[in-house]
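Quick check before the chapter quiz. The format below is the same one you will see on the exam, so make sure you can read both the input and the output lines.
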Amino acid sequence: MKKRINKLVCFILCFAMAISVLTVTTSALVSDGTEPISVAAGGNFTVALRFDGTVWAWGQNNLGQLGNASNTASNTPVQVRSVGGTGYLTSIVAIAAGQDFALALGNDGRVFAWGNGAEGRLGNGLLANNNTPVQVSIPATAGAIVEIAAGTAHSIARTSDGRLVAWGNNGNARLGDGTLTNRPIPVFVLERGLPANIHFENVIGIAAGDAHSVALRADGTVWAWGNSANGRLGNPSVPAVVGRPEPVYS
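Here is the expected output.
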């Protein structure tokens, strides 16, 4: 009888422990929406995307890079406002940070930018700084954007059909449109060769550096353009400045 009681007590204790572990594990999987799921670091500031689709930022704010309708630095996270500054950005799925500006991608494919507007970094057709987000003027023919990347002073975005648009500083031809002209409104990245107006396509991933840009194509090849100094384009045969994507040597 005593052995049966001991076995019963042991069973009850084990069952209680299992329920406790299950409860803790389940609780850990339930989100209250406030935890960050993505972060991006700019020159002297940081941006974080929360599970609930809101965006928060902290650090230097002299050019409005925190996006909170202020130009005062903050050593604690502040919430990024919406376009016009009356509310807050919501339904955001991705973020990126340049030297002194930031980007956010909405779940509807729209792109927002705030901070330093010099050289067209905000992509809204103007050169003014903005301490609240503005909507980037993505070409209508581009369709929805699914990925964003920010370099020091330029940005790239990938469309749902695998093409690229770029805007901002175009020194060293980092925008990939075959020119050295700064672009305050996004332009398509162009395929190398002739004719010179074919869109670069079949892209599944992008990245932006200080003076160059990189794209990964669906066939597994990597392409780069911009400043080739110090081998950053991965192709010893290209000139010092590459205006349209060239393959990286494999």
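If your answer matched, good. Confidence is low (pLDDT under 50) at residues 12-29.
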